[in-house]
Automatic annotation (TrEMBL):
Taxonomic source organism: Leptospira soteropolitanensis
Record-given protein name: DUF3426 domain-containing protein
Source superkingdom: Bacteria
UniProt KW keywords: Membrane, Transmembrane, Transmembrane helix
Transmembrane intervals: 63-82
Length: 305
């Protein structure tokens, strides 16, 4: 063997590391000092032809090993994923079969029997018409969100316009009355109108707060507008929210000449509390012959009597 050749890999890339130590620049083996007769050449960065083959073999070995490891890792991940997803699907199926049906799903949409009163058409200055009135539920069931559909007909009894609106109260128990208004935008000239009411039934009557109106009185303000002033009292044992008053002004022909709604500014209306309110009617020109007023509110949750 050449004295300037590495006995381990055959590389001639030999350099002197210290006074007594020589080392191969390719495999970094320490060389026996006894075989180094002549001084090694200056350190050269690179490999011999023989060393290139060794490195190439090393690279292929590393690539094959890495690929095998990657496939093993991927296989392990896929196996774990499918093992975990199976119990999840089983759990979801079991939960789905244990869900109880909501009683409200038994509700149906009906055309409830009832009585209309104070129904009239009130035009505005921009060509719209408001169909307003009062409906008394006589269906024998509690109603959810009564919907009022108004159809306008010409003198040939042809439907020329249809609009709809909802009652001023979302829940109307059997025997209870509720006011409504339906906006007919850009109403054409018509001969008469018809009203149909539909609603969804609910399984039982809904508990409602007991609200009382008292000391109602009409007056005029500085703008000559009709003002209804009065008091409202919460006679129930629960706090109410979203408390409001709806009123229709009625003439001697039993037709509505104006309507209005006012909500209490105070959010929590306490049990036995009394509050003042005022409602302005800008359309009415004179004090009405009679009126119909109703109250509505939501019982605040988690309140003790």
């Amino acid at each position: 063997m050449n004295s300037k050749q590495c006995p381990n890999c055959g590389s001639t890339n030999i350099y002197q590391e210290s006074v007594t130590i020589y080392r191969c620049g390719d495999c970094f083996d320490k060389l026996p000092t006894g075989v180094m007769v002549n001084s090694p050449p200056t350190k050269v960065f690179g490999t011999s032809k023989q060393n290139s083959k060794a490195d190439s073999l090393k690279k292929w070995k590393t690539l094959i090993t890495g690929t095998a490891f990657a496939w093993l890792l991927l296989g392990s991940f896929v196996f774990t994923y499918f093992q975990n997803i199976k119990p999840v699907q089983t759990t979801l199926e079991e939960e789905a079969t244990s869900i109880s049906l909501d009683p409200n799903l038994d509700s149906v949409e009906i055309v409830p029997e009832g009585e209309f009163q104070y129904t009239s058409a009130i035009p505005d200055v921009i060509g719209n018409v408001y169909i307003v009135g009062k409906f008394t539920n006589q269906s024998g069931q509690s109603l959810l969100m009564p919907k009022f559909t108004v159809s306008l007909f010409n003198n040939g009894n042809i439907n020329i316009k249809t609009s709809f609106g909802y009652a001023e109260k979302n829940l109307v128990n059997d025997g209870e009355s509720v006011s409504f208004q339906v906006l007919v935008e850009e109403a054409p000239s018509y001969d008469h109108f018809e009203i149909q009411v539909t609603a969804t039934t609910i399984p039982k009557e809904t508990e409602k707060p007991e609200l009382t109106l008292k000391k109602l009185d009409f007056k005029r303000n500085q703008h000559k507008e009709i003002v209804l002033a009065g008091k409202i009292q919460n006679k129930s044992n629960s706090i109410t929210n979203f408390t409001r008053i709806n009123c229709l002004l009625i003439n001697k022909e039993e037709k509505t000449i104006d309507y209005g709604t006012v909500s209490l500014q105070k959010e929590d209306f306490l049990p036995k509390e009394v509050q003042n309110f005022e409602m302005i009617f800008s359309r009415a020109k004179q004090i009405p012959d009679s009126y119909y007023c109703e109250t509505d509110a939501i019982i605040k949750e988690n309140t003790n009597p």
